[in-house]
Amino acid sequence: MATRSHTQKDFLLGYEFPLHPLQDFALNGTLASHAPEHPKEWGQEKDGFDFWKDFEQHFGSKSPKGDGESVHRSIAAAVSPDSKLLAISSAYPREGILIYDVVTKELRQVLEGCGTLAFKPPAAKYNVETEGQAATADAGGKPAYTLISNISTSEPRPQPYTGLILWELDHNGRLFVEEEPIDPAAIATKAIEAIVPELESEHEWTRAFVDASSLHADFVRALEKTSVDHRRRNNTVIQDAQIPSFVQSPFSCDGHSMVYVTNNRTTQHGMRDPEDLPHVVVYDVDAGREVHHFSGHTDMVAWFGFSPDGRHVASVSWDGTLRMSSIETRGVEWATESSGGQSWSGAFSPDSKHVIWSSRSGKEIKVHEVADGKVLSIFPETVANWCRYFSWHPTEPQVALCADKTVYVWRPFDGPEGVVVQRMVIDGGDRFPRMAQIQNASWMEDGRLLALGISDRTTLVYDTLTNAKEVFKRQRGVDAAHIRSGFFELPKGEEGKSAYLSVDGDGKVRYWDRSVAPLPDAQSERESPVEASWSESRSEQGRETPKNGKYVAVWSKIREQIGGTRKGKETSDQEREAWAQQGTSIWTAE
Questions:
Q1: Which of 133, 113, 137 is nearest to 124 (CA)?
Q2: How many angstroms separate the Cα of 193 from the Cα of each of 186, 199, 204, 387?
Q3: Where are the residues of the annotated region Disordered (predicted)?
Q4: Among 97, 176, 361, 563, whose CB has the most other CB atoms within 10 angstroms?
Q5: Contacts of 506 (CB under 8 A, 6+ apart)
Q6: Residue 587 lies in a domain
């Protein structure tokens, strides 16, 4: 009997996120539990608003509820570095960008862009005094915010968007330079009235024919398109430039530079001349010019990124290679051999010394030294599906990664192949075993929280200190578009309470209070289940015992097992499997 092929609409109608995973997070041998007042469903939020009504008003009136249109939409979101502005974009058929004030929920600006969204980091991101920076920049005659997006075309796009535009905004989120808009309908009427007499007298047109024709509508569309081009003369526009979907930010940490790729089309249907192959380009945002071109990839580039220190750009391609380029020397420092399958994603460690990537069709994961390309660690398991999302912990030598229905927390430097210290596996059910997936994972609140995006649009947040899970759940049957990066941590309010903001696929922005579970006994709010910092993890010097002594117990046990394994020249398959199985017990050692 043939297996029925399910659509995304079928999945959203029939699937409901299971509250009991096949394998759960754990702390000190205790499985994770739900935080107070959780799980929560859409509709139980503290506050929110309907952003899709604004899209309908400004970019078209067709309802997204009809015939499952929502599942075919693609929406992206971004919050400004100071958490004051929210940008939401929609791709074809209703291309546009809306800019909101996060606190007042006021719609501040409508932009004619779409697709990719990212705010440029402030140059003083790492300075202590950054409060009021946006207002200061605005008062000084400079834009307070810079937002990058794709260029809208109002045409169906079988390929990804291949043009970028930079938007400059003031401290209120409005265009820094804005012109008075034209009225295309009124101008079209005036123009037609001026030419109708000649059409009637010289060309035998009639007023009835003109009124019944599409002349006025065509005139309006032409004016609208031309007026968009006229307004864009105030913006930086880069043609044939693309930011792949797995790139978290195209900007350097100081905001002075950004990276994109040109000629980014696959060669799997036929090779092209070298000059027509993908080029990774570094662009000086302040000077408004390209400064570096890195070539060498022979197929579509799926990911690139700046190292946090701004000295390197790494790129991963469908040609199966990772290439490391130097900003200082303007050349490629090293490149891997082809892995023999598509490569999808990567990420630099916070200290800029290591890079992780997925190869062999996204199923093999390695960590390299940035300096020389040396392989330091290989993930001890072959993941079930493409691994296309990595998130390094901001202070600990560990990385969160997800593939198919599993999210892992992996410490790549603990042992010959590292140690998997956490693992959660969701239940895909019998009807949709291939469609239920964990799509992304990211650390929040300086690494205390791990947020997971599920393919049914549900979000789960795991608290590594309290061993509690917050679940923000889409109900079964609710139609919802795909959202790229739609869950954000907000600064504490006047009452000192933490909150989240979610941009959800049903067209709603939601504000959620954070539910904080009680801390386990013998663990203060400042203590983490794993106490090894980035500097400590790579140093052989002595370490000071923390208050609870738990770090020494964990590290001693890890060192004992590493030492026992490293005595031999090689590690057997059985030993590698033992490392993977012992990961959780090592991480939760007392």
A1: 133
A2: 11, 10, 16, 61
A3: 519-590
A4: 97
A5: 42, 52, 70, 474, 478, 479, 480, 481
A6: no
Rg of the chain (C-alpha set): 26
Tell whether 376 is covered by a domain. yes
Residue 155's alpha-carbon distances to 57, 93, 112, 159, in angstroms, are: 19, 7, 13, 11
Beta bridge partners of 151: 113
Inter-residue contact 24 to 33 (CB < 8 Å)? no
Helices and strands counted in the chain (H then E): 9, 36
Query: How far is residue 464's CA from residue 487's CA, in Å, rounded to a whole number?
Result: 18
Query: How far is residue 534's CA from residue 112's CA, in Å, rounded to a whole number?
Result: 43
| 33 is a domain residue | no
pLDDT digits (tens, 9 = 90+) for 410-449: 999 998 899 999 999 999 888 888 899 999 999 999 999 9
Separation between Cα atoms, residue 475 and residue 468, nearest integer Å: 21
pLDDT digits (tens, 9 = 90+) for 311-362: 999 999 999 999 999 999 999 999 999 988 889 899 999 999 999 999 887 7
Residue 81 contacts residue 66 (beta carbons within 8 Å): no
**Residue 480 maps to a domain:** no
Tokens at residue 572, please?
């057997």
CATH number, domain with residue 305 = 2.130.10.10
Domain count for the chain, please give it.
Answer: 1
| Strands (DSSP E) found in 296-340 | 301-306, 312-317, 322-326, 332-335
Mean pLDDT, residues 167-181: 90
Alpha carbon 372 to chain centroid, angstroms: 28
Contact 52, 507 (CB under 8 A): yes
pTM of the model: 0.82
Cβ atoms of 357 and 382 within 8 Å: the answer is no
Query: Contact at 8 Å (CB) between 244 and 266?
Result: no
The answer to whether the CB of 220 falls within 8 A of the CB of 256 is no
E strands in 360-403: 364-369, 375-378, 387-392, 399-403
Alpha-carbon distance of 378 to 83, in angstroms, equals 37
Distance separating alpha carbons of residues 230 and 56, to the nearest angstrom: 24
With H, G, I as helix, E, B as strand and everything else as coil, classify residue 187.
helix
> Does residue 195 sit in helix, strand or coil?
helix
Distance CA 318, CA 341 (A): 7
Query: What domain range is 298 assigned to?
Result: 260-343+345-380
User: From edge to edge, which strands make up the β-sheet containing 375-378?
Assistant: 346-348, 354-359, 364-369, 375-378
- The beta strands (E) that lie in 223-350 are given as 236-239, 257-262, 279-284, 289-294, 301-306, 312-317, 322-326, 332-335, 346-348
